[in-house]
Amino acid sequence: MSILMIILTLLLPPLAVAIRFGVASSAFLINLLLTLLGWLPGVIHGFWIQAKKP
């Protein structure tokens, strides 16, 4: 993961996931929902999904 993606995941988790997997992916929709429910769950999911997929 690059420094830019780490910073983007901390600031705007759905945008970081959308850049990597696309807007129509289930990962983006889940991350968007988690971020709307609370910033921290969105960030955790963002880092998890970024690290999980190569």
Automatic annotation (TrEMBL):
Its main location: membrane. Belongs to the UPF0057 (PMP3) family. It comes from Fulvivirga kasyanovii. This is YqaE/Pmp3 family membrane protein. It is found in: Membrane. The keyword Transmembrane helix applies. It comes from the Bacteria. Keywords: Membrane, Transmembrane, Transmembrane helix. PANTHER family: HYDROPHOBIC PROTEIN RCI2 LOW TEMPERATURE AND SALT RESPONSIVE PROTEIN LTI6 -RELATED (PTHR21659), UPF0057 MEMBRANE PROTEIN ZK632.10-RELATED (PTHR21659:SF42). InterPro entries: PMP3 (IPR000612).
